[in-house]
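pipeline/complex-builder :: batch 7 item 3
reading input block
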Amino acid sequence: MKFRHAKLLLLVALAVSLLVSLFASQINPYALFIFYNIGINIILAVSLNLINGYTGQFSLGHAGFMAVGAYTAAVITNQFGAVNPVASEALFLSALLAGGLVAAMVGLLVGLPTLRLKGDYLAIVTLGFGEIIRVIFQNMNAVGAARGLSVMHGWTNCFWVFGFAALTVYVVTALVHSTYGRGFIAVRDDEVAAEAMGINTTKYKVTAFVIGAFFAGIAGGLYAHAIQFLTPGGFGFMLSITFVVMVILGGMGNTPGVIFAAALLTLMPEGLRKLAGYPHLGWIGDTRMIIYSLLLIVLMLTRPQGLFTWRQKYKGAAP
Amino acid sequence: MTANNATENSLLRTARVTIRFGGLTAVSNLDLEIGRNELVGLIGPNGAGKTTVFNLITGVYQPTEGGIFFDGQSITGSKAYRITARGIARTFQNIRLFPSLTAFDNVRTAFHLHLQGDVRHALWRGRSFWDEEERIGEQVLELLEIFHLGKFRDAPARSLSYGDQRRLEIVRALAARPKLLLLDEPAAGMNSSEKTDLMRLIQFIKGKFQISVLLVEHDMQVVMGICERIAVLDYGVKIAEGRPDEVRRNPKVIEAYLGENP
């Protein structure tokens, strides 16, 4: 695939999400919220896939970047009371972008010193970073500390969620499908050889990290304005692990697979919750998370290379 | 130690280069010079420091003392990717391709150095982006065809045979358009007819691309067969240098390889 009609596809995706958002009032709010979560998780998983999957830098800090974006965007929009619909959309977009940019800056600050580390060491450092972010918010009285922060406006809608999801997929795919972008995979495959081929590996790693953090920040802002209440505890490292699982399940460096895995892992707990509502299946309600974990174990054992990686057997790991 | 006293014809010059790892002096006071369009061999017994010299020249290691000059400028202490951009490309003793990338993409990564556009180019995907990608694609295919690797263009590098991987690694290095190509034991693991092919290939590369080649090799058949000049390392010290027939008869070299004459 040469990804030639990428811009057209992006426009189509934007138009479709706009169209769906016009009919959003017909959908029941619970389903809509799950729908938002799918889109938000796609943004997070696909952006993490650029770092973990394509560039091969094992980061466990994605929830941290998401938290930075969520709090930044929420603090900005909370400054404003009731505004007219047009102004609210513009304000929301600016708040989201601000959240993304702040997260990207944090990504740069964290990435520059830590990306010299490899594998397990980088994982531990990024994990520590995520925890630091959480603890900072937990002790910051201006954003409600451990009590949490109410987000006044529920501005998240289908257009913004799936528009940004489409943009994330576009950016990651467009980057990787170029001579420039093959450098990310080169860094993952063999850093010494990449350096010997004239690739500035540090710059590539930091670029992946910053772009990944930017979209995680955007996703955080969308999440904040969907759930309308933020607690620092919600951005623990288990959340980062969830995103990593989505990437691994979808197949490292396989964007379509990761999109599918993000949707699947968002739906699975909800589907189990639904099942528990049927007669004789009440026990599922109590053991829901155990079943979820067991399903993960089974999936990992049967498809360790990712759900969809077979498709690319002859094309190399990257689509 | 200025670059200016190098002769006009010199491409690479190491001046009293020394590197120590803790108490071990891996390379000591090495003076080595490679001229333009010259094929030089670097030989020596196991552990003599040959690959260390490669790693010094390509910036993987920084010398403890001494300087390295390329094309009239010092590259001492430069980062590896900068040195490649200056025009030194290499292969590795144990092949280091990008295993999950296709043969085509392996070569394509080297064109990264000559890209006009950057991230924004790749994201916007305008006309100039596609023109450039197309041009690069043609050049990659042309290179692959020269080395009879065209049929593997869409195969991941890890699926290629050993000999094809060796050749692909050379093609990738050439795609960086070097002035100096460093080959680290290209004949390792090859049988005698493959070695003959390799010798032809190296001479062909030197002629076609008008570049200098520094060859580290164990195999005497290959080194003696094609090198115009040979330097011999033993325990990190250069013990001999000269034309193949001179080196072959040098008693110091014989001693280093076979032990002292009883």
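note: Chain B touches chain A at residues 58, 60, 79-81, 84-85, 89-90, 92, 96-102, 105, 108-113, 115, 117-119, 121-123, 125, 129-130, 132-133, 136, 154-156, 172-173, 176 (CB under 8 Å).
queue -> next item
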